[in-house]
Amino acid sequence: ARSYPLLPLRGSVSGPIRVSGTAPDLQLDADLTGAAGHLTYAGRVDADSVGGYGAKGSGAFDALSAALLVGRSTPQSRLAGQYDVDLVGDSLATLAGALSLRLEPSEIDGMRIASGAARVRFDQGIMQVDTLELESVPGTLRAHGVLGLTRAPGADSLVVAFDVDSLGGLRRYLRSTTTLTGK
Fold first, then answer.
1. Long-range contacts formed by 107-110: CB under 8 A, 24+ apart
2. Could you write out the three-class secondary structure of 7-65?
3. What is the pLDDT of residues 11-31, one digit of tens each?
4. Which of 88, 160, 162 is nearest to 131 (CA)?
5. What sign does the dihedral 73-74-78-82 (CA atoms) show?
6. Helix (H) or strand (E) holding 88
7. pTM above 0.90?
8. Residue 93, pLDDT above cutoff 80
């Protein structure tokens, strides 16, 4: 956190890291475990701030707590899957490239996720969601479109659909004060 304050990852990890090359073009292989879970990475890294930081590679994760990974305590999760990254930038405003995730059976806030996939692209403060799909106990969440991360409102066109199989799986998120009336 002190060396790269813009990188939001927090916590201690241990495990083998192999690094070769120079700061703008490092070959990095890591297999790390800590309180936030287990994470691997194999690929190239640009750790030189000139022109923005970058990463191009892939890896896997299991028993991963996304909240702990970024220094928060909630929501609790145990995520498992793989990822591919091809990104460069030093902030959300300059981030460019692509990220894809594939979720295996996982848990988010006590809700079981059977599977999931996401493919997003970043360009000048905009995130293009090509695919986002989560298969869970209560139903299936799908999204696609554009979301402005740092640009002024107005360019957003994110379409989100949630096909619910059972409201019972969502009970804790629904307020008990909701009253439905009909005429």
1. 107/77, 107/78, 107/79, 108/75, 108/76, 108/77, 108/79, 109/74, 109/75, 109/76, 109/77, 110/76, 110/172
2. CCCCCCEECCEEEEEECCEEEEEEEEEECCEEEEEEEEEECCCCCCEEEEEEEEEEEEC
3. 678 899 999 999 889 999 999
4. 160
5. negative
6. strand 77-89
7. no
8. yes
How many other CB atoms are found less than 10 A from the CB of residue 173?
10
Which residue type occupies 51?
G
- List residues bridging with 14 in a β-sheet: 33
The answer for residues whose C-beta is within 8 angstroms of residue 113's C-beta and 6 or more apart is: 103, 105, 106, 107, 134, 135, 136
In this predicted structure, what is the pLDDT of residue 181? 60
